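Entry for the shared binder. Reason: the reviewer on the internal report wants the predicted structure included alongside the sequence.
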Amino acid sequence: MRIYRIDHIGQVAPNLEPQVALLERLFGFTRVRSWDSPAEGCRGARLAVPGSWGQAWEVLAPSGDDSPVQAYLDDHGGRAGLHHVGAEVPDLDAVRAELEGRGIKPSSSADGGWIEASLSPPEHGPGVLFRLRGPGGSGLCGDEPGAAVLGGAADAGTGPSLGIVALDHVCQAFPDRDELARWYADLAGFAHVWRTPDDEHPDMADLVMNIPGSAICWEIIMPRGEDSFIERFWDRNGAAAHHVTFEVADWDRAMAACAHHETPTFGENEGSTDGAAWRDAFIHPKHTGGVLVQLFWEERPGVWVRSDKIPPTWT
């Protein structure tokens, strides 16, 4: 199968408007479309991400009886969080056949316009959910037949935003980074970009891949050593998405925006590579609507994580 474009990151929330307002105020996202789709049992909103290459952020909330979004929330203790990655493929039927041949059973939308499946190796349990559509479709955007398009927001709120300039990557936890990287390369053509040396961090090792046709990367983190935070995450969540990372234009502005919106950060790091400074930090899911968010700033492109990394060692 081949993914040629990442369309959006999909998030679920119990209530649509409060989550959209948070994303508009703190993150500086701009709502471009809202809808109510009784056939899919959800209300939703699509928001443009500053600096993105056509990628958006989508919020889904339950609508009506027997909503699959409500069922998802119930299954996860009512917690909001990252739900899926929306992407386009050249041939949806061919992708369905490929997945079924690998032991992955996708589900379909009510009108058959898209399929949904975890793309992780099935023997390791559910992983990150992907929602896939063929070329020319619009169902992932919330304007499929039967959906009432409600328009955008009249007021995006006041105050400073983070100053996001790019959606950089999605991070997934997995016991063996090389195993999952080989799987994604073989399944969907993900390209290996870089990996950290095994002993660079005491409790983790990571590897980054590029998603073809997209500026977004895919990071795989695996536990190492004793009492790794990734091991604890795996025990609770399995092969789930760990965090989403955004680049900001100005670190002081981003931190001032967090302070203005009473949003604390943690895990701050700073350093320099090749004489250029960089900084990063995290925002806890309870302040973002259920998604662990990482922010980074770099004085010069490529110095935060890439220029000091060793090249791939496997084929």
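Summary line for the report: Residues 5-141 form a domain with the 2,3-Dihydroxybiphenyl 1,2-Dioxygenase; domain 1 fold (CATH 3.10.180.10).
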